[in-house]
Hints:
- The structure holds two protein chains of two kinds.
- Chain A is mainly alpha-helical.
- Helices cover 62% and strands 0% of the residues of chain A.
- Chain B is mostly helical.
- Chain B is 79% helix and 0% strand.
- The longest helix of chain B has 27 residues, at 37-63.
- At the A-B interface, α2, α3, α5, α6 and α7 of A face α1, α4 and α5 of B.
Amino acid sequence: MLSSTTERVTLSGMLADDGYLIERLRTGDDTAFEELVDHHAGPLLAVTRRILRDEEEARDAVQETFVAAFRGINAFQAESRVSTWLHRIAVNCALMKLRIRERRREQDVDALLPHFQADGHQDHSSVSWSESAEEILQREQSVALVRQCIDQLPESYRVVLVLRDIEQLPAGVVAEKLQITRDNLKVKLHRARQALRTLLDPHMRGAM
Amino acid sequence: MSSVTCIELIAFLDAYVDDELDADTRAGFDRHLLVCPSCRAYLETYKETIDLARGAAEREEDLAHDAPPELIEAVLTSKSRRSKS
């Protein structure tokens, strides 16, 4: 693998190394494309895996990302970062696959939301977890457990959580990509977080 | 907001966490949190859930950063085919 180069930021905010790379890509320099793929394929695969949960589809989405990037190299905006540009293309490619994938019957998320008594108090008292997120994530098995819990969320809630809380895309962008209103997105994200909290809770109360 | 209940606080917890509430409503939420250990724990674990989701994804990327060689090869072959056509 090629070693990553030191990133230098120019006054315009664009990385100087990005600028040189884009210039070479536009002139048809094959080694520049190899560098682009070598440097970005890994992180992009992680993104498409998170969205699609299917290795083959995730790899296809990465391949399509680079094809789309190669085709659209002249449209690349100089003020952007290459990694941000590729990330957006990868998310689009993965979401396209998600849409055309035969939709599984959407499970109800209600069972994973907190329940309340008639007087508005919580049905079951919540208790703090025994360790901080940072401490929990020191263990590889905990990382895998968090992933498994995220994967148990109903599809439309899981995708909202991945795009907003993990990929950290702006709300307007996610609402547009998922073709839902911003209000609907907000409700879904809150429910997704609550449902994930419910799934994690029994594991996090005691030491894992 | 005069007297906030658990159901109200948890319904708008995302707005509380994202600091989107007006000052009066926020003060009402803060008063409820002072007297309700269950909601304090819920708030704490709600925020920790967000940190865990984000942190686990970052850790996964650290653990498996490189793309499989066959994927790199497939991308380069695909590009080479398109360049020739």
